[in-house]
Every structure is written in C-alpha cells, then in structure tokens.
Amino acid sequence: MAVVDKFNKFARYYDNFFIQFFCSITHRRIIKFIKKYIENNFNILDIGCGTGNCLNKVAKLNNQLQLFGLDNSLEMIKIARNKFKKITFSSGNAEDLPFEDNLFNLVITTDAFYYFKKKERVISECSRVLKGNGYLFIFTPSIDQFLSRLLVNLSKISSIEKESQHLYLKDLIFLTESYGFKLIKKDLSNWPGLFGFKYWSLLFQKI
C-alpha cells in the first residue's frame, strides 16, 4: 500500500487529542523559530500540511497573511477544508507543485520531508515557487546523533515509516545549496515527550 493510501486511512485519527497534544508543542516551537521572518502580506505554503493545524497557528500571527496548504492525502485535505475556511488547501504532489513561479515568500515542510522520494525535485520546486530572498523552513528528525538515529530506525517498524528516507544534516544542506539556498538559521532540540529524539529546525533563504 502506498504511503498516501496509508495517510488517507489515518486521516480520521490524526486530530485525536494524543497526537495533537504533541503536535501543538512542536507547532509552537516552529512558530517561535520563524515568526520574526514573517512580514505583512506574506504568501506562505505548507507542504505536507495534514489537517491544517500548523497553518492555523501561523494565521494567528498576522491577519494579512495569505496561507496555502498542500498534501497528497485527499482525506487530510478534506478535513482541513472543513475546519479552516480562510486557508486555501489543495491536494497535490510536492514533486510537482501546482503553483506559479515566484509566488511565495515562505515555504514550510514539517515532519514530512523524509517521505519525499525525489528530494532533489522537491527542493527544485520549492526554489521555483519562492520569490527572490524567500525562505524555506524544514523541520525534520536528526540522524546525526546516535540515539536519535536509532529511534528513527526503530520507527520503521511502522508501515507508514518504513519507506521514509532521512538525510544527515550535511547532505540536506548540500542538497538545498545545490538549488540556490543558503542556511541562515538552525536549531537542534528534543522532540516533546521523548528524550534523545532530536529534531532539526532549519531555515534556508533563496539567494
């Protein structure tokens, strides 16, 4: 079964209290990390937006933001559209973004980048849809630390996670730099509730 089909089945459970309790901690951390870079009238795209909860928190920063969410799970998008009417949600593929060139000021992908099989294509597409000096934010597990790498590998017992492909930080930086990005800010922190499971918050700028 393809990953997208698994997420379609999982969508109905995604907003349960247990999952969203930990997600909400992560979302607050992400917003604290990026908020000083967000300006009035920014167009912001969340790739792998799920049911839209992170974007809804971003919306509270500024009522002049234009927010767009993309996910290849149609069931996730259906739920997001029902919950958040002021955000534009689309079902689509990160490797072929259904948006025009130079549209966004900020593209974010939270806990999703490791699912993308053609990562080079995704970064290329992010560069295409971003305006000059636009920002790309990636929130992803670290495999640079032993314990975190071990936990990532153990997570592949799950049918959803077994197809994930994680990158070391140096490889992720090399990939983004190959498509015209520069790393301007990074942070390594524990995933809430699980000591030793490290996540990177990475902010790149298109140059």
Ends distance:
39 Å
Describe the oligomeric state of these chains in a short phrase: single chain
Question: Please, what is the CATH homologous superfamily of the largest domain?
Answer: Vaccinia Virus protein VP39
Tell me how many strands there are.
7
Number of domains: 2
Give unreliable regions as ranges.
none
Q: How are the strands of the biggest sheet laid out side by side?
A: 3-2-1-4-5-7-6
Overall geometry comes to globular
Q: Which percent range describes the beta-strand content?
A: 25-35%
- Portion in helices: 25-40%
Global Rg: 16 Å
Give the SSE string: HHEHEHEEHEHHEE
Topology:
Elements (H helix, E strand, L loop, with lengths): L2 H8 L6 H18 L8 E5 L5 H7 L6 E6 L2 H10 L4 E4 L12 E7 L8 H11 E12 L4 H10 L13 H10 L2 E10 L7 E9 L1
Parallel strand pairs: 1-2, 1-4, 2-3, 4-5
Antiparallel strand pairs: 5-7, 6-7
Helix pairs in contact: 2-3
Q: How does this structure look, described?
A:
With 207 residues, the chain is of the alpha/beta class. It folds into two domains: 1-23 and 43-85, no CATH class; 93-207, Vaccinia Virus protein VP39 (Rossmann fold, 3-Layer(aba) Sandwich). Helices cover 36% and strands 26% of the residues. It is built from seven helices and seven strands; from the N terminus they run H-H-E-H-E-H-E-E-H-E-H-H-E-E. It has a seven-stranded mixed beta sheet with strand order 3-2-1-4-5-7-6, with helices on both faces. Helix 2 packs across helix 3 (53-59). The model has no long low-confidence stretch (mean pLDDT 93).
